[in-house]
Amino acid sequence: MAQNNSGVPSRAEKLVSLTYALINTPHGYSKRELRKIVDDYKGLGDAAFDRKFDRDKKDLREMGVPVKTLGTDAEERYLITPESYRLPEVSFTTEEAAALGLAAQLWKDTDFESSATRANGRLSAGLEDSGRGVSFTEYVPRLQAAGPAFGACLEAVWARQVVSFDYLDSQGRSSQRTLDAWGIGQRFGNWYLAGFDHDREAVRIFRLTRILSDIRTGQAHSSRPAGFSMSESLAALDPDIAGQTARIIVAKEAGWVLRSKADSVVPGSQDDDVTLQFHDMMGLAADIAKLGAAARVLEPPHLVTEVQNKLDRALAAQLKAVPGYKLSKRRNAGRPPSTEAVALNLDIISYVAKYGSPTVEQTASHFGLSDKQLLAHLQTIMMCGVPNGLPDELIDVEWETGAISINNAEALNAPIKLSLTEAATMLAGLASLRGLPHFEHASAIDSAYAKLQSAAVGFEGLESVLSIALRSSEENENYATLVSAIRTRRVVDLNYYSASSDAVGVREVEPIRILEHAGRQYLRAYSVPNGEIRSFRIDRIQTVIPTAKTFEWDTERHEDHEDIYFTPGPTDELVVLGFASRLTSLVDEYSPEQWARGDDETIAQIRMTSLSSIAGMVAFHGGDLRVIAPELLRTEVQAWLRKAVENKEVK
Fold first, then answer.
1. Which of these, 299, 404, 430, lies nearest to 345 by C-alpha position?
2. From residue 8, how far is each of 45, 374, 561 by CA, in Å?
3. Rounded mean pLDDT of the chain?
């Protein structure tokens, strides 16, 4: 039985109650009436109330629940209309629901993973057993948004807003840019924002990871042309375009990455003179800095300066005092936004209404919650209703018998519409899978995509301004050979570049599947010499040579359900690294064993096969990565960086 909460209502509880009240009134509430019935609004002055109410309306709008205004000025009244609240009825087949599940599985970014999971649960709620156990097999893609800039850019693109931000271009120059936001998308593993640049008076594309500031939004624009396609804009990008020439002195037997791109290599007695073409100065500077004292730039001058700056920043970061920290097995991801809890509570109400009296266990399983977590949500729901309402105006929740019943919530029984992020994650996920060659679930993906477009009411045309091209959609010879070997269970020899030894060697492997994470591809394979499953970066595979040998599937030998991109071994050495906020998405790739949170960095304990490569890693990231422990390694990295800095200062 519902009852009044003697404590202060949580924000999630207040927003559910506000939704309940505004959808339960045919004529709406005035501001005066809302200030009487909502505790959070009582005692506020006009300006304070307007700010708080505007914030609540914004949160509801972001969830896909727009508040409608009737009348004008002092006569304004507010309500939520059923048609603006409810998800259109769309029926998915078992195979299509499985396709939705695959699209939801793509996202491995905390906020967008939650959005995709909620949307998938809402869309396929009528097919309780569909898609369960269906997963990616030979190819497993994962998507990750490019930090906080992604969400802000997505909203600005959809709202057709002018945005401004501080930007670092490929030549290392920083400037403030202002543009009409037209589209956002991913290609080559990078996220890009496209629009009309006010200063350049031309269309420009910006890499999100080079945005140095918060996204500042301004007025609306109308410059995006009809028929604009973000996918076509990204298709015009050429990652291999050569813009400038560099000359670099590289020590013998070092710098394989540079040598592999070289136009010429002139041998010397101790060093070689390497000439290559480049367009992305920041990327090349990182590759050179990673070699430390084993490489020195001769020209052009601005590349010399950027390599020096990277090493200077890396050394400065490494010399910073070690903060106090306490490692934990559990990562502290912070509290989810209240809107996430509100959307989940509303989804639980509609789910229970659809199934009549589902069990606690069944409901918890559907939403991926523990029984304890579900009961916490049910307790919140039972405190909701018309704010400060009488008992019969509150939502009635029962679960003591093991079956859940929710009464007096008829207005909330229909599933809510998809929000912008929910529609974006699902549409982009399915669209990216549609672009894959020879994908094993292609037909179900196509039909699910068509139906999802009709369900995403209010977001018609979103697919034209949001585009994701998975790396595997751009097939190359090695990728195709590996896919064939996976399907035919063919043993292959890999000519593989090892970053730790800066050398190429041969690996005999039994290929299992291909993973893609944030635009980088990995082969998961059983390493015959090592007797274990390992990850191999596909961009480091020089050639794939199929052998005459095949292998039989052995569950103990080949079963692999982990999304592991870096394979630590039990005898590898433990190190503690500090990752700056710009590298937060990189942390998971190293399969950390423990975590801690510093003032402005994520501290992670990881295992490394070879410590010899860590100094180069620190230099590569130019101040965004540092060694925290052990102390001896910190000292060694500092000495390595000092030597590298001194080498770069030699004229």
1. 404
2. 20, 21, 44
3. 85
Q: What are phi and psi of 341, to 5 degrees?
A: -65, -40
Q: Residue 611 gets which letter from DSSP?
A: G
3-state secondary structure 334-387: CCCCHHHHHHHHHHHHHHHHHHCCCEHHHHHHHCCCCHHHHHHHHHHHCCCECC
Token readout for 190 is 């990078």
Cβ–Cβ < 8 Å for 414, 87:
yes
Alpha carbons 422 and 115: distance in angstroms, whole number: 5
- As given in the structure block, the two tokens for residue 322 are 């070690």
Give strand pairing partners of 167.
175, 211
Q: CA–CA separation, 538 vs 520, rounded Å?
A: 8
- For the CA atoms of the chain, what is the radius of gyration? 28
Distance CA 158, CA 164 (A): 16
**pLDDT exceeds cutoff 50 at 5:** no
Question: Is residue 159 within 8 Å of 207, Cβ to Cβ?
Answer: no
Coil, strand or helix: which one is 180? strand
DSSP character for 593?
Answer: S
Residue 59 is inside which H or E element, if any?
helix 46-62
Structural element, H or E, at residue 191? strand 190-197
Averaged over 64-91, what is the pLDDT?
A: 86
Q: Provide the 3-class DSSP secondary structure of residue 637.
A: helix
Contacts of 50 (CB under 8 A, 6+ apart): none
**What is the rounded CA–CA span in Å between residue 300 and residue 433?**
42
Q: What are phi and psi of 481, to 5 degrees?
A: -65, -40
What is the total residue count of the chain? 651
What is the rounded distance in angstroms from the CA atom of residue 386 to the CA atom of residue 90? 30
- What number of H helices and E strands is found in the chain? 21, 25
pLDDT at 264: 93
pLDDT at 642: 95
For 314-346, what is each residue's pLDDT tens digit?
A: 999 999 999 888 998 866 555 566 778 888 889
Secondary structure (DSSP) of 17-53: HHHHHHHS-SS-EEHHHHHHH-GGGTT--HHHHHHHH
Burial 499-525 (b: 16+ CB within 10 A, else e): beebebeebbbbbbbbbbbbbebbbbb
- Mean pLDDT over residues 532-550, rounded? 91
The DSSP line for 264-303 is EEEE-SSEEEEEEEES-HHHHHHHHHTTGGGEEEEE-HHH
Give the percent of the chain with pLDDT over 90: 37
Lowest mean pLDDT of 132-141, 265-274, 284-293, name the range: 132-141
Residue 179, SS3 per DSSP: strand
Q: Is residue 437 helix, strand or coil?
A: coil
> Measuring CA to CA, how many Å separate 68 from each of 29, 60, 78, 419?
11, 11, 6, 16
CA distance 165 to 143: 24
Give the residue from 439, 584, 567 showing the smallest Cα distance to 140. Answer: 439
Considering only CA atoms, which of 154, 98, 65 is closest in space to residue 418? 65
With contact defined as beta carbons under 8 Å apart, do 311 and 641 qualify?
A: yes
Between CA 91 and CA 27 the distance in angstroms is: 33
What pLDDT is stored for residue 12 in this prediction? 81
Whether the per-residue pLDDT at 124 is higher than 60: the answer is yes
Q: What is the DSSP letter of 458?
A: T
Consecutive H or E run containing 523 = strand 520-527
pLDDT (mean) for 411-422? 87
* pTM summary value: 0.75
8 A C-beta contact, residue 435 and residue 474: no
> Residue 355 is encoded by which pair of tokens?
């199934």
Cα 341 to its chain centre, rounded Å, is 20
